[in-house]
Amino acid sequence: MTRTTAYTSVPVRYAETDQMGIVHHSVYVIWCELGRTELIKKLGFRYNELEKQGYLSPVTGINLQYKRSAVYDETMTIQTWVKDYSGVRIEYGYLISNENGETCVEGSSEHVCVSKDSFRPLSIKKHLPEWHEMYTREVSH
Amino acid sequence: MTRTTAYTSVPVRYAETDQMGIVHHSVYVIWCELGRTELIKKLGFRYNELEKQGYLSPVTGINLQYKRSAVYDETMTIQTWVKDYSGVRIEYGYLISNENGETCVEGSSEHVCVSKDSFRPLSIKKHLPEWHEMYTREVSH
Amino acid sequence: MTRTTAYTSVPVRYAETDQMGIVHHSVYVIWCELGRTELIKKLGFRYNELEKQGYLSPVTGINLQYKRSAVYDETMTIQTWVKDYSGVRIEYGYLISNENGETCVEGSSEHVCVSKDSFRPLSIKKHLPEWHEMYTREVSH
Amino acid sequence: MTRTTAYTSVPVRYAETDQMGIVHHSVYVIWCELGRTELIKKLGFRYNELEKQGYLSPVTGINLQYKRSAVYDETMTIQTWVKDYSGVRIEYGYLISNENGETCVEGSSEHVCVSKDSFRPLSIKKHLPEWHEMYTREVSH
């Protein structure tokens, strides 16, 4: 068995370029979020449902390595997977490549779950047992 | 007497440029919002206080004319004023110019006030009498 | 015969929301650009090719009416068509609707073509005869 | 002697918030860029001049740790300094804090210099000796 990987296709928007003629480096952070959304759906959940239950999942860290520039009018592929899980903290892995299969950006992000009111990290195992089970399954491969 | 005008100074961010080498046209919409925030402060109010009272002021229309491009590393000035007011709908006027005093963008935006729950336009006169008085005073000049 | 309309599907990104809990009004300006890109492809052209030939097509005006809010986790449809054409100035029309077919935003944008060096509007008929023919055909319906 | 630190003041824009009611995590990447621009000016250089000479300085890595959320209507302070320098690669450090002096985000970014045409990293010592001298001086403290 292998971990689940989501493949998200995203055309480069003109507004995402900068005067270097390439995609601005901040945009990849947003693309990673698109990948995360799709991975969560593929795993049978919806991030929006989490928020409707009174929880949020803010980012606590991001680490991206830029290898090659993306440009306007090409379609990127974002690969996303669950990289690590501690019961409290989730780490997602990302690989963003262009149409020629060349890696543009690699990296990871870390997240916790908090309640809307307190914004304090909580035990996913206790408060969101189904998510806990899913994360545990993914990292046990 | 004349209407109140706010003068907001905003340096062009690198991330706001696109591959044309100029500021992307969507950015001016955000700059108008900065001008609006400052005008409201100058008139003695705070937009954030409005939201804390349970109201929002969404945009219902925007109209911008682009005359000249803004570029990275210059500082723009946004002039903002109350252009029209109906008791329900507020129209703000904008003039965005560069360091040489040349007009880059002119335009206007329209807004209503709604309650957070219903999102339905409400009478500002009735629900926000101090704001009503201020808007009325501004457009009576 | 009828005018060509492009239908562009765009999922709402989390980063596109604001603290009102709805899509920020500046985002629709970017969505209109996505619609324009797709319409141009459907008409047999590519905006990027225009730039490679040394031309740019900056926005000279934008006018949007906001009717209803878009929210995270829904997929929007952007309808785009050529609304008017003068030989120098092109006007595109937009209608952005949600999954229930409700109109969220309607509007238009105006554009000229300029050379990369001068940034001065030029005759499309003279410099870009194939684009001229296409625009003329679209507005003659 | 101590390293030079730039202090950049940036009011939180409404458009920078998301439906969590806090600043979207991608925005800090843009704020770091603002800090970098200011640090470079404080050190007697201008990034724009570099580009006019035919060089670019793309980001090759970014690493941010999010400690606390920033919210609308407060003014953030971005501290930026040169953290490391290898002759080819520059690392900047960042500390972003709110009005109460609380740290919201800490992190770093890595950059190279490339020529506009090739996009290949070059020796700063050889091609940009004044910048080399400045970076060397900063990290020798």
UniProtKB/TrEMBL annotation, chains A, B, C, D:
Belongs to the 4-hydroxybenzoyl-CoA thioesterase family. GO terms for molecular function: fatty acyl-CoA hydrolase activity. Keywords: Hydrolase. PANTHER family: 4-HYDROXYBENZOYL-COA THIOESTERASE FAMILY MEMBER, NOVEL THIOESTERASE SUPERFAMILY DOMAIN AND SAPOSIN A-TYPE DOMAIN CONTAINING PROTEIN (0610012H03RIK). The keyword Hydrolase applies. This is Acyl-CoA thioester hydrolase. InterPro entries: 4-hydroxybenzoyl-CoA_TE, HotDog_dom_sf, YbgC/YbaW. The lineage of its organism: Bacteria, Bacillati, Bacillota, Bacilli, Bacillales.
